């Protein structure tokens, strides 16, 4: 049965489509102002929910050095997905822990796949209609 759930990563070590979708929905949940990146307070809220504490200044700096961010230094969606691709490569258990924390446990995903139901609720994907706040 386990084979129903695809691996986290493609052979090129990028998130596979299913997990990209799941992590995108998690990202959007924490991108409260919907500007396509997680600013400091959004990232803190995410870290708090995920790890029970905020990122340490140093480890956050290290993460942000490795992944894509915008001009202000905030984590973009692409950077967020890169971050999780790295984590999935290094520590699958930790990645499952994080997924479970955000409502996507192994059993939940398996059940949805068996029933052929969408794993990510629609309302968590389609938010793009709200116009972005534009600074320019
Ligand atoms: Ca944001």
UniProtKB/TrEMBL annotation:
Query: Where located?
Result: Membrane
Q: Where is the EF-hand domain?
A: 18-53
GO cellular component annotations, sorted alphabetically?
ciliary membrane; plasma membrane protein complex
Q: Name one GO biological process term.
A: positive regulation of protein localization to ciliary membrane
For this UniProt record, give its keywords in alphabetical order, as a comma-separated list: Calcium, Membrane, Metal-binding, Repeat
One Pfam annotation reads EF-hand_7
UniProt-recorded Gene Ontology molecular function terms? calcium ion binding
Protein name per its UniProtKB record: EF-Hand 1, calcium-binding site domain-containing protein
Source organism: Rozella allomycis (strain CSF55)
């Amino acid at each position: 049965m386990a084979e129903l759930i695809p691996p986290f990563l493609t052979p090129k070590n990028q998130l596979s489509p299913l997990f990209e979708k799941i992590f995108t929905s998690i990202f959007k949940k924490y991108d409260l102002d919907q500007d396509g990146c997680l600013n400091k307070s959004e990232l803190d809220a995410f870290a708090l929910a995920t790890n029970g504490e905020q990122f340490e200044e140093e480890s956050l700096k290290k993460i942000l050095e490795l992944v894509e961010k915008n001009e202000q230094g905030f984590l973009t969606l692409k950077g967020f997905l890169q971050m999780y691709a790295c984590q999935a490569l290094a520590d699958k258990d930790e990645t499952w822990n994080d997924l479970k924390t955000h409502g996507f446990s192994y059993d939940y995903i398996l059940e949805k796949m068996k029933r052929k139901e969408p794993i990510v609720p629609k309302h968590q994907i389609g938010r793009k209609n709200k116009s972005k706040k534009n600074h320019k």
